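Quick one, tokens below:
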């Protein structure tokens, strides 16, 4: 019984920490990316449309490797500035993970 309770507590703690990490990533995304890419990643904001920002939910973006996304976020691409100095390595990695959560859900 004690082992089961400890296991359930560990699972619960893992879920809470995972949710907190995603929440932090979302906060970073909203602060740094949503102006152009929109809250949903579809780049339908007025700034996103004007700059022709990438739709982060698109197959073109979602098919890129994590390394490719990391490079683009860190160093920038086209009109997008690099965010390496703003986010740091960990923040860039978190953005890659968050961009992955924007992929359309398979049904």
């Amino acid at each position: 019984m004690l082992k089961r309770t400890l296991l359930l507590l560990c699972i619960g703690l893992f879920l809470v920490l995972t949710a907190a990490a995603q929440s932090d990533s979302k906060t970073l995304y909203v602060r740094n990316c949503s102006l152009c890419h929109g809250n949903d990643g579809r780049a339908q904001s007025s700034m996103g449309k004007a700059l022709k920002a990438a739709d982060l939910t698109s197959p073109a973006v979602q098919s890129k490797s994590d390394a490719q996304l990391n490079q683009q976020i860190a160093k920038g691409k086209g009109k997008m500035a690099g965010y390496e100095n703003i986010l740091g390595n960990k923040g860039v990695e978190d953005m890659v993970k968050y961009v992955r959560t924007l992929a359309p859900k398979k049904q």
